[in-house]
Amino acid sequence: MSMIGNFLAVSPNQAEFLKTHPDQIEGFLYSDHVQDGADLLGIDKAWHGLHYLLTGSVWEGDEPLRSVVLGGEEVGEDVGCGPARFLDVDHVKEICAVLAEVDIESLTQRYDAQAMNDAEIYPPNWGDEDCDWLIEAFEKVLNFYSEAASRGQCVVLFLN
């Protein structure tokens, strides 16, 4: 089974509805409207490697970088690989600001395939060629948060 990292931008009203109706989350996330929409970003299996590059940690890290991929308030039941996690508008703006300051060269220099394999960063078997894949995922996530912050949106993070 693969674990795919997903980022979904939603309005504050949508986020509040889903938080108060957690039984609706899974159906909403997997609806055709969401799955075919422009507000959904999937970064495939790059989520854990990106978290590691941003934080230097397998699962933890300092805020707000820890929240880029693995943060947010858990709401509801398992939607694939754990519950969905919600980031409010202020947190999205904070993440956007800190991501804008991240130097891609620094991320590239932090990439160490052997260390990532030793730390059991998902997916297994990191190689030297995977650095570019993670940098591409970072750029997509940076653009995603920038758009969500500029529109005053919340973000739902989920793995499936």
* CATH class category of the domain at 45-154: Alpha Beta
Q: In percent, how helical is the residue content?
A: 40-55%
CATH superfamily label of the domain at 45-154 = YfbM-like super family
CATH architecture type of the domain at 45-154: 3-Layer(aba) Sandwich
Give a structural overview.
The chain contains nine helices and five strands, in the order βαααβααββααααβ. The chain is α+β, with helices and mostly antiparallel strands and 160 residues long. It has a domain at 45-154: Hypothetical protein yfbM fold, CATH 3.40.1760.10. The chain has a five-stranded antiparallel beta sheet. Strand 3 and strand 4 (83-87) form a beta hairpin. Helix 4 crosses helix 9 (130-150) and helix 6 packs across helix 9. The longest helix has 21 residues, at 130-150. The radius of gyration is 15 Å and the shape is globular.
